[in-house]
Design brief:
The protein is mainly alpha-helical. It contains one helix and no strands.
């Protein structure tokens, strides 16, 4: 017959052995999350500087095109005045 009164109880302690494992996993995941945030910040800064460089290049190109158009118009005016 089975002893139902609990004299020889062989149940495991629930949750006690998983606490250190869960703590380590939490610390590791928090560290990975921190690294992700830092890398995203660096990526955003790099993209910001690239956008600034591209914008300044665009401004320089626009000014060069404007000067070229002014030069062509001045040459066309001088040709019409010479005739």
């Amino acid at each position: 017959m089975l002893n139902l009164t609990g004299g020889d109880n062989t149940t495991n302690k629930p949750g006690r052995s998983l606490l250190p494992v869960l703590t380590v996993l939490f610390v590791v995941s928090y560290g990975l999350l921190t690294m992700l945030v830092v890398e995203q910040g660096r990526t955003i800064d790099s993209q910001r500087s690239l956008i600034h460089m591209l914008f300044s290049d665009s401004v320089q190109l626009s000014s060069m095109k404007g000067r070229a158009i002014q030069k062509q118009q001045a040459e066309a005016q001088s040709k019409t005045q010479a005739q």
